[in-house]
Amino acid sequence: MPTQTNVAPKRPTLTQQVKTQAAQIEQLTTQLQQKEEDLTSLARQADAAQKALQDQLQQSESGRSDASAERDQHKKKITSITRKLNQKEKQIEQLTTELTQKIATAETQLTEVSGQQHKIKSDNIINLHIISGMALGLLPVPILDIAALTGVQLNLLRSLCKHHNVEFDEQKGKAFVHALISGTTPVATVVGLSSVIKLIPAIGTIGGGIGMVVGSGTSIYAIGQVFATHFRTGGTLQNFSVEHWKSFFRNKLQEGKDQIRHRL
């Protein structure tokens, strides 16, 4: 039988192993360099991204600062405008108060002037009828002078009603005038006697005429003052009370007598 011989496999030589390892090392070095380049590129990208982010942050901060500054300016403007509006409101309020006071003062003055003018016209109406009554008192015919005096007194009341926008009632007017005069005995007596005295020739006419003039003027004055005061305070013929005005009428009779004598 032939003899079998065992052949051992060839092992790589040391040189080949070195070369293989060198190739692996070179390959690893290349990979490492590639990784380093990748890292460098990533680092650059990171730096760029960080810079961009910082730029954006700075712009945002700048924008916020500008916005904050703009808001502050708007707040200042609003505060200034509000302050001016408050000042204007105070000025308007002050002017309104002053104007209201002036209007009130003017209204008061106008009311006073109007009241004075109204009273002056009322007094003029009374004085005009006093003159008419005194003139009629010189009529030489007895009784007729009394009738004329009654007519003047009634016409005075009619004129005062018209002046004070009061409704005139002839029947009530006659009754009130008669009640006032008859309630004062001296006046009725003087007027009646003066008219009767005129029946005496010469001296009676003169004496009776003078007495009639004084009595007529006095009674017209007192009647005028009573009704003018009554109407001026809001009264009418409907709510006139003879009893209420009797005392006032007597006072005005004495006042009128003094004025008539002074005129004569």
Describe the structure using short key phrases.
single chain; about 260 residues; mainly alpha; rod-shaped
Strands, helices and their partners?
Layout: H1 14-136, H2 144-163, H3 170-182, H4 185-197, H5 203-232, H6 242-263
Helix pairs in contact: 1-2, 1-5, 2-3, 2-5, 4-5, 5-6
Characterization of the model:
This protein has helices at 14-136, 144-163, 170-182, 185-197, 203-232, 242-263. Residues 187-209 have low confidence and may be disordered. The termini are far apart. The chain has 264 residues and is mainly α. The chain is rod-shaped and about 180 Å long.
Strand content: under 5%
**Biggest beta-sheet profile:** none
Q: What count of helical segments does DSSP give? A: 6
Overall, the morphology is rod-shaped
**Oligomeric nature of the chains:** single chain
Q: How many E-type strands?
A: 0
Order of helices and strands: HHHHHH
Overall pLDDT confidence: 76
Span between termini = 204 Å
- Quickly give the structural class: mainly alpha
Radius of gyration: 63 Å
Low-confidence stretches: 187-209
Helical content band: over 70%
Describe the structure in brief:
The protein is an all-alpha fold. Helices cover 84% and strands 0% of the residues.
